[in-house]
Amino acid sequence: DGGITQSPKYLFRKEGQNVTLSCEQNLNHDAMYWYRQDPGQGLRLIYYSQIVNDFQKGDIAEGYSVSREKKESFPLTVTSAQKNPTAFYLCASSIANFYYGYTFGSGTRLTVV
Amino acid sequence: SQQGEEDPQALSIQEGENATMNCSYKTSINNLQWYRQNSGRGLVHLILIRSNEREKHSGRLRVTLDTSKKSSSLLITASRAADTASYFCATDEETSGSRLTFGEGTQLTVNP
Fold first, then answer.
1. Is B36 exposed, middle or buried (0-12, 13-18, 19+ CB in 10 A)?
2. Does residue A107 sit at the B interface (CB-CB below 8 Å)?
3. Mean pLDDT of A22-49
């Protein structure tokens, strides 16, 4: 079945540690996105990528980094520079003009311990 | 930046009743989309309405768009307990560079 897979489902990070969240899709979608969701709030865009080897900052990119070496994969690294990383992270993908909407993964819940 | 603002923030109704959620936005858009999120899960795309459309239906869902007022509404008819979820509107702004901007959502509770 085609879909978008995020892993792990739960992730615990120690202070000062970098962690990487995985996002893989087999939908042949060109575009991929990372959003952050805090409790009871909407989604805020971190980074997005329209094509391989290219990506753009979203509204809250500070403290995060991404890569897009393959069409299927768009990993997100939460660096130690992100001072408040505890949140629910959602990855999404779409065809180029997203007239059919985004397809979302099931999310990764990151907690700082 | 949050483009869409949903109203109300929370809505509680009985099974069988209709649920109406509203979304307002600030800038010109290419299209507006509605998504559903069950607790702790990813979002699921429900329906898309283009800027030149005024109304669209999909099953028990009815979406309207008024570009002059920069607002949209989502109506769920004959609601079921399984409709309990958060509902988000998302806008594709004309100047956004191919990205969606999400509102903060409406939490709908349908009581059996």
1. buried
2. yes
3. 94
Mean pLDDT, chain B, whole residue set: 93
Gap between the Cα atoms of A89 and A108, Å rounded: 5
Contact A104/B at CB under 8 A:
yes
pLDDT > 90: percent of chain A = 79
Taking the Cβ of residue A16 and every Cβ of chain B, the question of whether any pair is shorter than 8 Å is answered with no
Asked if A101 contacts A1 with a C-beta cutoff of 8 angstroms, the reply is: no
Contacts with B104 from chain A: Cβ below 8 Å: 41-42
With contacts defined as CB-CB under 8 Å, which chain B residues touch A31? Answer: 98
Quote the CA–CA distance of B8 and B85 in Å, as a whole number.
14
Give tens-digit pLDDT for A44-61. Answer: 999 999 999 999 999 999
